[in-house]
Design goal:
Six copies of one chain form a homohexamer.
Chain A: E1 14-28, E2 34-42, E3 45-51, H1 61-67, E4 73-83, E5 86-96, H2 115-127, H3 132-151, H4 165-184, H5 190-199, H6 204-207, H7 219-244, H8 249-263, H9 282-305, E6 312-315, E7 319-322
Parallel strand pairs in A: 3-5
Antiparallel strand pairs in A: 1-2, 1-4, 2-3, 4-5, 6-7
Helix pairs in contact in A: 2-3, 2-4, 3-5, 3-7, 4-5, 4-9, 5-8, 5-9, 7-8
């Protein structure tokens, strides 16, 4: 009997069910016959499929591409085999899902916590920012952009590229920061840490498209990068506040210090990773290091998720990784 | 008879005349006696001086420092000797110059062209910017800041650290760019080049103090760097224009492209020299290369000015330099 | 109706006409059937073609390779399709062009100016070299080698790899240099610049084969590189002059200074790009920077020629490149 | 009246009291007269002193060096002046403190928590190691070496070079690790983290002398480094356990995995900072990042402790640092 | 008539004979039909083969993989063609060789000298170690592990990856070292050189599997690397000796010095090639340089073995290589 | 009684005897009194001296500098003290040695073998070059330049900076090469190795002054470097031979191959150490590695010569070095 949930598909099974299209590529065999390489998904599970031209049902490639496009929900039948250790499916039949036939939210990978609880928790961190101008700017920017911010992915490819990834990544950093502030006491300025971490990647809502299936860099993102974009947002807020009330030189200074922390959160300029200024405060150094921890934990967890225990594999950007066997 | 103009002072002479104080340091002999190391100058000529405590005339170091401070004009008598191939002077007597006694402009190094002619020529380049929104932003920023801009130094230490250095450097780049635009025709966009070059270092009026004798990085300069500062100026202008009229997406795009050229005028991020985005257009690559040419010509001319013909010396940041003998 | 000029070929057309063979590779399908990958061209336009074995007409691969060889002129019929955004043609019929049937010069990419005018202009720069021994050496080497020099490509793959590319590149540098010499006055020595730039890449006539279709590094080129080769040419000239007249130490020195400028025109040794000595004069630094400007303008123009306006692509050696939309 | 506690000494005061000798250097004036540069301290406060030869009291330098030696307690009288912004003292009279006259513990800088409480807390972390062989090895090594371990410095110069610094640094990492384990759940293996962090720097008890005043690298430390030294300790324990009972291959594997985490806690080999193997598990990457956080917080806190608010200074290994003004 | 010895196989021949399987990969054609890529060998000669599914003889891929597995001896018939300048064979028929039918030693590449003579010569070097504790440790480790050591490969891929490669590489280094010791006299300590070179790669018997056909890194190898593994072996010997007799501090020191030489034989830490300590003696620097010489000679000899005279090829890790024509 | 041989001078002695002046520097005390820092030597022993102005005997500094100049032989009396672990002498009286009073050869450091024997041995290697054109060029260049070559230093500062150092270094490389050729048989071409090694540093006779006391880079040396200089010598020989007889293409090729080996003997271009072409033969790689071995042995031997056994010191370019205690 055919498997109906993509999460359960293994080699040798046939499949009948819904799935979400993540990526479509036209290819040709060496003989010149067209076929499609299609990646379909349910949540985190991705399956590579082939639609050979004997399965086109007489349609042209152009017609097929109106069905097989990023983000469309399909009903497929096919047969799964195994290739290089991965499930692969040959598509036999296909149609677009009809409206209301299936709930798309069950097919999209999302942050493991609810948008509502994440939003509340981030707001609680913002509430602890004791420097008034930092509190005002952070709070206003968060409220202005929270709709996009709470659902946006945090990356094109690497870590946190899922719905709500940006908010979840931001929240994870705030939690680590809280513990470090608790542990090191006055050595670390809690208000600056919370303001900087809440805002540090907010420029990504403009740097990348909000598409959850296949986000891309925008033109503006490539002109300026997310760091300069968020610094622009902060500057516009500062200009706005100055229109309403007088702002002391100490206040301007602390806002520029905030922009420095954000400017340098990719580390020193010499590493060439895209900081736009050198880190010159403890908080600036800390933001970079905390960002690194969350990114690495997520990349490594993701990379080892499908590995066998005891296996070693080479992973791009991380070198070799070993997945230990359980021993406890 | 004593030399009265610092430009003519050589070892063995005595000196009586005016000079400008560039730098003052308190020192102590090994025995603990205080003395002052003072650098005085007329135009480009700098002379290292010593004021031993037998020349203090009973004054305390604190009293002396009110006389010997950066930028003050002094009347000195002293005797010049030679040390490690350089003139060095022991100060015997000193007093502050009185108001009107001497024209300070004769003692400050300035750009080799007049402020008026440089300002007119830069404005003529701005007039050739054919993309209206780039013309408006560049023109307004130039007019807003021209007072500071036309007299500012361009660097703390290296090339162009003289009065008007920023304007002179900017103008030199515009002239090279004009010739390259003439030579390569449509391959290079003249409007973008002129806008970007006029603005590329304008952030330095905030990054560095306007002091012509001993400029320093400001706190804001160290928080953001001159690239982010000028991008902020451009963004505020864009916001202002939007308040007055509707701005098309093509116009916004070209303004962001301008910010990208400026963001990347220190070269690719991987060199770690402080670009805040990658260069992604020909104009961005060109700005970096033209900036480099003018900087190198000025640094090498300066470094070899005092060398003997036929001599080789090691110069910081440039390696060994050879000053050729005349042969033509 | 079939397209007859390769410059006009687009996907979906059939083609009947002449073209020049640039590259031929034997391949096999997974089933083991042989076929040919052939690149044909007219001027700058290159089209990738496939000749399947059902189009071999009974000939063996060896027989086919006497027809499909680098530089041969063919008459082809075929059908163009589109693959990964590029035109691709399946060859149906083919024959060698007969003598006189077609003018090969219409199929080869050449410098955009005539050989005669370029030669005259380079000679006019040589005439401005005021240091007699530099003038003599540069002039004699140019006259000795002008036949090869005027038609040679300047590179195996990158910029200026077309007929006359070496002369055109050399001339472009001389023009930039002229403007910089005009602008910076005595700071730059015009005679040394013109001598060095005329000769800087002349070693390439030995480093690379003179083939305009597919130039390759020669064995001697790989043993020594074009810098050491041209320095050898200069040295042989110097030895020759010494056989005819006495040469002063100042003259020898300036010839070695010339060799230093050429030796270092790939920049400092530390970049590992093949300079054979450190740059130690302003002219040496300038040669490197001017060479860079011309190379980058040509590489970027070439890379963006086929891009859509508004598009961003990753280009080897240049990173991402953006082709702006017209706005003026 | 003279100041009697070194912690209160400021320029202009005279001093009479006890202090600890940290460093002694013989010097000569240019005239050839010998004198001593002596650094004395109480807790974290260090004062540079000079003993001129008119203060030698007829003793030879050799005799003086028996009094002024690292770690000796002296009673001094002298006068403090100010030099380059720092207190400096000229010593007038001196004698060795007599037994029982002063409590040396009041003069040595120590970790800010008691040895007893730190030892108990580290032990509580060890108790949470749930993999028996890791628990046994970690626990035994800690008990074997706790005497040295609890009092040892953690560095020759940089962060944590004070009595108990090694234990305090170890404990700080364990605390950060605890919070990260709590936050990320099963993604991180708590047992391996606690075992690795407890042991990661234990090799320093052999790599550096236990001297609290001026620790130095030992010969063995320079032959192998602290990573190989602690791996040797772990291996000897493993050999010992094998003599007592049979050890499964899974157990050996997890011990080698522990050695890998420790081997790579300085980051990837390519950074050249002394890791002895590549990190291949999440725990290995995490150890490196957590170690970095604690080290940076301590280095920056130390470096900014004596800076003025609002000041920027260049600090070796950290670049420029800014000490913010209070604003909250 | 068919070729029966793989060493003589050239394109166009058919083949009937024995060969050793070195590598097997399952593949699929674009149509989805399975086939096998098999590499077979005799001595140093490797031939890439294809077994299409029309040659499967009705067997499944799983069944085929029991025949085609690393290290199995097969009797094959097939036809050789030429592809990209290399021999390639299509397999028609195949069977496993029967016991005794063929001598596997004639199919495995081995060191060019006999195991017996190499073992005797290495032992003669060990006999010249005049420092007793180094002699004892080296001699015992050699005798303990000589069975594995004498037959082990020295590398997974690069130089010396053949049976006995580890012993042959070790012996080559000892021979170079002997000559350098003879030439430089007392400057170099012969005993330390011989001990360090004999042991330097002994950890590879644990770092890599002993398989001569397709060696792989072991898990332990990836946890610690061969340097830490052999240092562990040395340390265990030292512990053992201490159980039997008292060992002087001078003896312990020289053993640690030996471990330092081995720890640093991949060069300085900054190159990131896996040394586990900095070289701090002449012998440590020499070991690294001698190791390099033997490795390079072998890699280059291997890389040029199949090149034509006069040819230039790019070789991974070595750049371009030229194979000279004979001229003598 | 005073010591009369500088080799025996230790702190506390007075001295009366001859010595050679290696370096002279004018200095001033902080009070402005002039004095001289003079380095004197006998063989490898160097002693730093001070001549205070109370020892000037009424002469001016200019008069003193005619006596104290590089390379002059003096008769001195003085008193030795100890400063920072090194002997230091205050000069009381001095005079120039008279002609014939002392044999300067006893004061200059020279190669440890006689010029005659080294010359004969180098010639015997040249005799083994079996490729006629390489033999002719090497032999002629050696005979042309042997006078300078046999006595020249090999370096300005580092290894082999003594009389005959160039010949001794060359000979050492030839000896190592002989053994490697013997060991590796046909893999290495003996003729090319001997020709390349004999000539590899011959350009230094022009790159550096022949002064044995304080050699310096010449102007020509800095324009081209010793590699391009010797390649020029070889090319001039090749041109000369062509005037006398016809030279085959194979012969030209092998001469260029020789120039490639020399061009690349500082290693790959990417290290930035001054190779002028990439190494593309085994012999080219070997020359670099053998050169490295001899250089390192000499630098380390020199650096550790004055160290105590058991001591560790940091040495420029080598990192830390340990001088082992004797144990055998």
């Amino acid at each position: 009997m055919a498997v109906t949930c993509l999460l359960e598909l293994t080699p040798g099974n046939s499949f009948e069910g819904f799935c979400l299209v993540k990526e479509v590529k036209q290819e040709k065999t060496k003989k010149g016959d067209p076929y499609l390489n299609v990646t379909v998904a349910k949540k985190h599970k991705m399956v590579a499929c082939k639609l050979w031209n004997n399965g086109f049902g007489g349609r042209t490639v152009e017609e097929l591409l109106t069905v097989f496009s990023n983000g469309s929900m399909l009903y497929l039948t096919g047969v799964a085999s195994e290739y290089n250790g991965q499930v692969q499916m040959t598509i036999n039949e296909f149609r677009l899902a009809e409206n209301g036939e299936v709930d798309v939210r069950e097919y999209i990978e999302s942050a493991p916590e609810s948008v509502e609880s994440m939003e509340a928790e981030i707001r609680s961190y913002i509430d602890e920012i004791k420097i008034p101008i930092l509190h005002q700017i952070t709070s206003e920017l968060f409220e202005d952009h929270k709709k996009l911010f709470m659902h946006h992915v945090a990356a094109v490819k690497m870590h946190h590229n899922f719905r709500g990834g940006l908010a979840y990544h931001t929240l994870s950093l705030l939690r680590i920061a809280k513990n470090i502030c608790d542990q090191y006491g006055e050595a670390v300025n809690r208000s600056k840490m919370y303001a900087a971490l809440t805002l540090h990647d907010m420029g990504k809502i403009i740097e990348m498209t909000k598409d959850f299936t296949a986000p891309e860099y925008t033109l503006f993102g490539q002109f300026l990068g997310h760091i300069q974009i968020v610094n622009q947002m902060i500057d516009r807020k500062l200009v706005g506040i100055r229109h309403e009330r007088s702002v002391s030189i100490e206040e301007v200074t602390v806002v520029y210090e905030l922009m420095n922390i954000i400017s340098s959160h990719h580390g020193p300029l010499s590493n060439g990773w895209g900081s736009t200024a050198e880190p010159i405060t403890l908080e600036a150094h800390l933001c970079h290091m905390i960002d690194n921890i969350d990114a690495k934990i997520n990349m490594i967890s993701k990379a080892t998720a499908d590995m066998q225990e005891g296996e070693i594999q080479k992973v791009w950007g991380l070198g070799k990784l070993y997945k230990p066997r359980e021993i406890e």
